[in-house]
Amino acid sequence: MKNTQLFFALLILFSQFELFSQTRNERKPKENKITKEVDKANQTVKDTNESIKNTVATSKETIGELKETISFLFPKKNKNKTKGIVSIHITQVEYDAVDLNQLYKAITKAKGIKKPSKSFENNIAIIKVSYKKSVDDLWQKVPEHIRKAFKMVKMDHQTMLVNWSKK
């Protein structure tokens, strides 16, 4: 009887071990498939994060360039600015435009003008002069037939922004 009980106990133990082994082996392919899906999802997340980093970096550069352009076109008023220096910014102008050269000559010939200078970059010309009165007063001294080639966009006491109207 003891042998029979021992036999059945071993048989039950062996069958449980065999059943456990089969269940474990059946889970391995599912686990491998899940692992592959998780790895694929992780790679997608990494790629997306890299794309986002690149987009943010490009956006930061664009914002920096935009800030420079805006501050150039619309400079902050600085109380420590040298008095007597007025500037006229002409946008959308070609360097060799006859209108630009006529404007520069008319400004430099006006009474009270000292230290005239002209600079040009990215289709923006800047004329700076030492002048004790306002930029509006200087603009009024430019003959009307020359002023007609330009459209006023913005003006304060020392700075004027105008667009060139190509003929």
Care to describe what's here?
The protein contains four helices and five strands, in the order H-E-H-E-E-H-H-E-E. By secondary structure, the chain is α+β, with helices and mostly antiparallel strands. The chain has two domains: 1-73; 85-164, Alpha-Beta Plaits (2-Layer Sandwich), CATH 3.30.70. Strands 2-3-1-5-4 form a five-stranded mixed sheet, with helices on one face.
State the main characteristics.
Alpha-Beta Plaits; five-stranded mixed beta sheet; 2 domains; alpha+beta
CATH topology of the largest domain: Alpha-Beta Plaits
Unreliable sequence segments: none
Which structural class fits the helix and strand makeup? Answer: alpha+beta
The Cα radius of gyration reads 40 Å
Tell me the number of structural domains.
2
CATH architectural designation of the largest domain: 2-Layer Sandwich
Overall 3D shape: rod-shaped
Run of helices and strands? HEHEEHHEE
Helix content: 55-70%
What is the number of E strands? 5
| Name of the CATH first level of the largest domain | Alpha Beta
Biggest sheet character: 5 strands, mixed
Count of separate DSSP helical elements: 4
User: Which range does the strand content fall in?
Assistant: 15-25%
How confident is the prediction overall: mean pLDDT? Answer: 80
The N- to C-terminal Cα distance equals 119 Å
Strand order of the largest sheet: 2-3-1-5-4
